[in-house]
Automatic annotation (TrEMBL), chain A:
Cell location: Cell membrane
InterPro entries attached to this UniProt entry: MetI-like, MetI-like_sf
CDD domains named among the record's database cross-references: TM_PBP2
Transmembrane segments: 54-74, 107-132, 138-154, 185-213, 234-256, 294-314
Domain ABC transmembrane type-1: 103-311
Protein name: Spermidine/putrescine transport system permease protein
TrEMBL record, chain B:
Annotated ranges, domain ABC transmembrane type-1: 58-246
Phylogenetic placement of the source organism: Bacteria, Pseudomonadati, Pseudomonadota, Alphaproteobacteria, Rhodobacterales
Alphabetical list of PANTHER family matching this protein: PUTRESCINE TRANSPORT SYSTEM PERMEASE PROTEIN POTI
Domain of life: Bacteria
Topology term for the membrane: Multi-pass membrane protein
GO terms under biological process: transmembrane transport
Keyword check for Protein biosynthesis: no
Record-given protein name: Spermidine/putrescine transport system permease protein
Gene3D superfamilies to which the protein is assigned, alphabetical: MetI-like
Family, as annotated: Belongs to the binding-protein-dependent transport system permease family. CysTW subfamily.
Regions that span the bilayer: 6-25, 62-82, 94-117, 129-150, 170-191, 198-216, 228-249
Location of this chain's protein in the cell: Cell membrane
One Pfam family per UniProt: BPD_transp_1
Length: 320, 266
């Protein structure tokens, strides 16, 4: 990098490039020129280095997403695609009740899953951050993440086994004499989808909240208590507001991908628990109507993005 | 704070419940996946050895996993190094776009790639799955590699350059050895993600299914379920071994660069 500048003040300069900047700028006029060339080489090297990844993402993500967007304004004409721009797909998506039901149900399920997952996960993150001794924290985090490196398909399928008519839960409760006949409200409906997805996304919520809690300066909590606040009020007025960036991140990390889940609704949702991803798949692979599938994808993503932005805006005061 | 500890333990049971059932049913001597258990058997594991379609799917998944993990680690090294070492224009939007697949629903990635590939007249093969898997594994690789690169003391590299090394020489002789544990961890994580990924493979695979696509096709046949359980048990053992190795290398990398351990992946 800056071999011309680096002799003598090696440590300071290199660890803190910003500081070098300021110091040499003040030092002399020639320094400014040197710095602007340095910035140029820095920028050039950075851009060159990132270009393979950036180009890959451009070609395999940006271009495909743009294509989906374009497709949503085209229409299927038997085996070929009619490329005249039309709002037909969107009109159909808004008027045909089946699409509306799928979209609204998906948003509802994603919302419920998000709330359930975050509310259940917060105490765990809090427990690990505040009540587990420092040397055992890594072990707890490891324990929490392990189950999620096993096949997602099989985990979703096993929930079907657990929640089923003569499944683990029902046979267990029957055996204990707690119920007289198997519970049926827990499989092949939205409840089952919520339970399975809440399980699938658990670590994605625990980790960001945990990281936010870890960052909280513990002396602030002591200060609050010293100034006469009780435990509960300290939690709600100090801990929770400071943990909000983690909660917001966790919320988005669950809410956005959940809308597109295909496996769980197919396995445990039954006919009334199917979500928009199942409809998108049907349009693309079964009905061979890619433009309609594209329009539904765009609508789902648009709705999720809009809700996420509103959520971010509502929480802006916690995010600096 | 006793109730919090109780809650944490109940929660862990909830997290581990499905995973623990897998080995239970894979050794259960019954064709129906339900309680009560019927006795011990290893026949479901023996059955696995005789299924050719499974072996094909496994080989295919291993190939896709290795290639995707290699590509995403290379792309991850470029991006992680660029973002931790240099300041350049449009850094935030570029990095944002690269990390986007982390939150984007996989079905959106899958259908958008499918549409483009169909329009360009590509036929679906293992390579189309690799394209998709590389895309979704790269953000994970970057997350792991960034922490390796971030912990580096830049003065080491500067010293090498001052002592007459070329920039590439300094990178390959000083930086690479220091981040090798991070590279190994990134490769293993990307490999595990690719091996487990279903939706993208489901949409983009051609005639040769991957392992999850094969498993999906078997879930419809009740008779096949016990052997699917056995297969799942083997997969859990395999991913636990891989993850322990990855965690070992990640910790070693953090110790090597002298940074503080912030716990687990992600």
């Amino acid at each position: 990098m800056s071999s011309a500048l680096s002799t003598g003040r090696l440590g300071l300069q290199i660890r803190l490039p910003h500081a070098t900047f300021a110091v040499s700028c003040d030092a002399d006029q020639g320094g400014a020129k040197q710095i602007s060339t340095r910035f140029d080489t820095d920028a050039k090297r950075g851009l060159t280095l990132i270009s393979p990844t950036a180009i890959y993402v451009l070609l395999l993500l940006a271009v495909p997403l743009a294509t989906i967007f374009a497709f949503s304004f085209w229409s299927q004409d038997f085996l070929s695609i009619d490329r005249t721009l039309t709002l037909k797909n969107y009109r159909e998506a808004f008027t045909d009740p089946i699409y509306r039901v799928f979209l609204l149900r998906s948003l509802w399920i994603s919302g419920v899953v998000t709330v359930v997952t975050v509310v259940l996960a917060f105490p765990i993150a809090y427990f690990v951050s505040f009540h587990v001794p420092p040397e055992r924290k890594a072990l707890w985090i490891f324990l929490i993440t392990i189950p999620f490196w096993t096949s997602y398909l099989l985990r979703a399928f096993l929930w079907k086994v657990i929640l089923g008519f003569n499944g683990v839960l029902n046979s267990g409760l029957l055996g204990l004499g707690l119920i007289d006949e198997p519970l049926t409200f827990i499989l092949y409906n939205t409840n089952a989808v919520v339970i399975t997805l809440a399980h699938a996304f658990a670590p994605f919520t625990i980790l960001p909240i945990y990281v936010a809690l870890e960052k909280i300066d513990r002396s602030l909590l002591e200060a609050s208590q010293d100034l006469g606040e009780g435990t509960a009020r300290t939690f709600f007025r100090v801990t929770l507001p400071l943990a909000m960036p983690g909660v917001v991140a966790a919320t988005l990390i669950v809410f956005i991908p959940t809308i597109g889940d295909y496996v769980t609704p197919r396995l445990v949702g039954g006919p009334d628990g199917l979500m928009i991803a199942n409809m998108i798949q049907t349009q693309f692979l079964k009905l061979n109507n890619a433009p309609m599938g594209a329009a539904l994808s765009v609508l789902a993503m648009g709705a999720v993005t809009l809700i996420s932005l509103i959520f971010l805006f509502a929480n802006r005061r916690f995010l600096k | 704070m006793n109730w919090l500890r109780v809650y944490a333990i109940v929660y862990l049971v909830f997290l581990y419940l499905p995973v623990l059932l897998l080995p239970v049913f894979s050794f259960n001597d019954a064709t129906v996946i339900a309680f009560p258990l019927q006795g011990f058997t290893t026949q479901w594991f023996k059955e696995l050895a005789g299924i050719d379609a499974l072996h094909g799917a496994l080989k295919n998944s291993l190939f896709i996993g290795i290639v995707s993990a290699t590509l995403s680690t290379i792309l991850g090294i470029c991006a992680a190094r660029a973002s931790t070492r240099y300041r350049f224009p449009f850094k935030a939007p570029i990095m944002g776009a690269i990390m986007l697949p982390l939150v984007l629903p996989e079905i959106i990635v899958a259908v958008s790639l499918l549409v483009v590939l169909m329009q360009l007249g590509f036929s679906l093969t293992s390579w189309t799955v690799i394209m998709g898997h590389t895309l979704i594994c790269t953000p994970f690789a970057i997350a792991i590699l960034s922490s390796s690169f971030q912990g580096l003391d830049q003065s080491l590299e500067e010293a090498a350059v001052d002592l007459g090394e070329t920039r590439w020489g300094a990178f390959s002789k000083i930086i690479l050895p220091l981040v090798t544990p991070g590279i190994v961890a990134s490769f293993l994580i990307a490999f595990t993600i690719s091996m487990d990924e279903f939706i993208i493979a489901f949409f983009l695979t051609g005639a040769d299914p991957t392992l999850p696509v094969y498993i999906w096709s078997q879930l419809r046949f009740p008779k096949r379920l016990p052997s699917v359980m056995a297969l799942g048990t083997l997969l859990i053992v395999a991913s636990l071994v891989l993850l322990s190795i990855a965690e070992y290398f990640r910790r070693r990398g953090i110790r090597r660069t002298g940074a503080k351990d912030s716990g687990g992946f992600l």
